[in-house]
């Protein structure tokens, strides 16, 4: 739940200040206005600054995502530099709906924003990392923080009402992202929910998925999921699992253009074992475009 008093106004002022928005500002966005970033970042901030907003239909983007994504920042600058576009206009940001929209610009954490504080916390312990360069859960304290989730008191308490023993009066948002702060810059490294604990080790499903996908051209890119399945479920299906796997077996579900030969399945298992030192209990293939 986001209110106009304090939360939205505070967030808009942060973006105005960080992006140096003025009456000369021109913003282009494909995000719909019922999306928090489309409304607050793409429309309200520019209107408050007196600038201009150019909007195009989200369906145009969906039909051809490369229209927006194919040009990297570096290439974009190279193409527009002859027309006087400065590198200083490029300002990638990081934000979340629980904090209205905006949180970090250009990667810098806790810079020129005394009313926004980012901490790296030891997951499931609730204590701040003594060394913020080590990976941990990202906690955020800000006046832009939402009031909670509508009709979800328990989840709201868990997300918005967190405190550190060293700062009992300050509230922090737990957003579920993992990261670290290096040289004053915030690096997002993953999601807590994407962690799979196998034999006491933290396994990032996204890393294993990338390994699987690059093993064979028969696999459809971006359509692989690695999940942890309880041993009792695997056993009921007649699937064996590695001993000492913390009651979990690693299962790969992936789209394939055609049935995978045995040697490809073997290659996937070998690659995953070599790169991540874990075993796969089962590989399940589904038809191409079953997921998306």
Automatic annotation (TrEMBL):
InterPro entries: AMP-bd_C_sf (IPR045851), ANL_N_sf (IPR042099). PANTHER family: DISCO-INTERACTING PROTEIN 2, DISCO-INTERACTING PROTEIN 2 DIP2 -RELATED. This is AMP-dependent synthetase/ligase domain-containing protein.
